[in-house]
Amino acid sequence: MHFSNPIRSRRMTYDITLRTLLLAILACIFKVHGLSVPGPPSTPSPPSQTPITPPTLNPPSPTKVPHIIFLSADTGGGHRASALSLNASLTAHHLSTPFTSEIVNIWPGGAWPYRDLVEAYVHLSRHPRQWKFLYHLSNTTPYLAWMNADTVLRNIKRIRKMSCWTEADIIVSVHPTMTNIPQIVSRKPFYTVITDLGSCHATWFSRRCSRMFVASDKLYNKARKRGWVRTEKLVRSGLPIRPVFGEEGERMGGRYSEQGVKYRKEKKEKLGLEGDSVLFMGGGEGVGMEEYVWGVKRQMEAEGVKSQIVVVCGRNKDLHERLSNSTPPPPKRNILKRILRRPKVECEPEKGGSVEIIPLEFIDNPQEYMVACDVLVTKAGPGTIAEAASLGIPLMLTSFLPGQESGNVDIVLEASFGNFSTSVPEVSELVTNLMRDGGLRAEMSRNGEKIGDAKAGERIAEVIWEDYWKGRTGRDFGKRRRWFREAWRRMRGLEDDS
Predict the structure, then answer these.
(1) Does residue 161 share a domain with residue 101?
(2) Which residues contact residue 56 at a Cβ distance below 8 angstroms, ignoring those fewer than 6 apart?
(3) Are 148 and 286 in a shared domain?
(4) 338 phi and psi, to 5 degrees?
(5) What's the average pLDDT block by block, 10 residues per block, for the chain (498 residues)?
(6) What are the residue boundaries of the Glycosyl transferase family 28 C-terminal domain, all occurrences included (predicted)?
(7) CATH code at 285?
(8) For strand 277-281 and strand 375-378, is the pairing parallel, antiparallel, or unpaired?
(9) Which of 135, 277, 323, 446 is the right S-S partner for 359, CB 3.0 to 4.6 Å?
């Protein structure tokens, strides 16, 4: 007689179950990276245009003053600008109630290297090759899983002790590194506002959020396929910019209309500008502009163009000092290139061309300078592109952070309201041609106004206040489905049941 071994049978059952789970996980990973046959694309629903009246379902206490915290860091100027624009939109919305707010950075008290996030960004923004390597390495599923686990294990105890979590009634994250831990620590309504246009990092997609606001269809589809964010949580809102840009655009009307020309002339007189002007903006750190500034100046003087160059230096005090003293940039210390390359012969500018450089530090009225100036030279930052499109100023893009800002260049070129080049002579020639050709500037301006959208902040504020007046908490945005259940449905190619 043959007797079956119960222990052996049990081990075989465990082996079969384990193999099935491993196959499901591998199929899920392949699906995330687009190695399997994709399902039918989902199209986002357009934002609601009808005004919303405050519902009477479980309204908050009338004596309670809500406190809103914005999670952000000074890694460039775009994240803080988005936080300020959302604060202004929440204040001005018709559903608004008096509230208090603050901008919080959770990393200064964290472990290394997270506490040095701002310093690391400054270094990497000046070394694009290092940024590109780190960006694409961290944008993979294995690295992302390890990084999320590492940040939680080494930082969650310190971050949990912060008083902002108990004081906050609404949490809004505008920074990709502040989406995972805050959603674990706090049970309050959590809103993620992605501050990118054409491409973004996978750290934005944390599925525990209450709502996720995206700026384009590309990011909507990426949030569904890469982040597995449920459709009921995704809102196609556009990129929030400060309401003052929309107000300036309404006062100006068309940039080259009769009303617009008169309004821009008044702005030029207010800011002390004469004639046509070129505006240079290099983000909060003011990097990567100096060579282009001097190249454009020499080219316009050589072709007899009279103009002014306004340079916003931000926190770059050395650049502001050199431009104030009219000191050209120091030569690069690359001995091999200096030996192999022939020395450049600088041509003497013709008489009749005069270009004045006006360096500025931080300014609180960039919208006025964008209205007054004729061409904007900048890197491909999403916030700056959205602001320029709302005011119809032609763009000249000189650089972008690999991966993160590469999709922004495509948006500008497809809309035909700007050019892109990394070559100093080519940038100088293109900007000079724009300054000499008013018809080309007018055509590019009209193309920019077609895609300009200054109402994104209002849409986001409308959704947040609607949820607040409904009395929703962090648990009221749908049940969290099990991870293996969703992986199994995706492996079988079934439609999402959300």
Answers:
(1) yes
(2) none
(3) no
(4) -70, -30
(5) 47 51 51 37 41 51 86 85 92 92 92 88 86 91 90 91 92 94 90 91 89 92 88 91 90 90 93 92 76 92 90 86 79 55 46 80 89 94 92 93 87 93 94 93 93 91 92 63 56 52
(6) 289-397
(7) 3.40.50.2000
(8) parallel
(9) 323
Residues 282, 402: one domain?
Answer: yes
Task: Tell me, yes or no, whether 395 and 438 share the same domain.
Answer: yes
pLDDT attached to residue 321: 87
Res 347: pLDDT: 44
Token pair 């450089």: residue: 357
Looking at residue 332, its pLDDT comes to 58
Residue given tokens 């054409």 in the structure block: 198
16 inside domain: no
Read off the tokens for 272: 């002390």
pLDDT the model gives residue 331: 60
Residues whose CB falls within 8 Å of the CB of residue 103, separated by 6 or more in sequence, listed in order: 69, 70, 71, 72, 80, 83
- What range defines the domain where residue 211 resides? 67-241+455-480
Report whether 346 contacts 298 (CB < 8 A).
yes
β-bridge pairing 277-281 and 307-312: parallel
300 shares its domain with 183:
no
Do residues 200 and 292 both lie within one domain? no
Measured distance CA(458)–CA(454) in Å, rounded: 8
233 shares a domain with 355? no
Shared domain check, 390 and 298: yes
> Domain total for the chain?
2
Please check whether residue 358 is in contact with residue 308, taking contact to mean a CB–CB distance below 8 angstroms. yes
Cβ proximity of 486 and 228 under 8 Å: yes
CATH code of the domain containing 83: 3.40.50
Whole-number Å distance between alpha carbons of 146 and 148: 6
Question: Is 197:239 a contact under the CB 8 Å cutoff?
Answer: yes
In degrees and rounded to multiples of 5, residue 266 shows phi and psi of: -65, -40
CA 292 to mean position of chain CA atoms: 24
pTM here is 0.77
Contact 266, 272 (CB under 8 A): no
Q: Would you state the structure tokens that stand for residue 457, as one six-digit string?
A: 């902040």
- Note the pLDDT of residue 390: 93
Q: What pLDDT score was predicted for residue 243?
A: 87
Does residue 41 lie in a domain region?
A: no
With H, G, I as helix, E, B as strand and everything else as coil, classify residue 295: helix
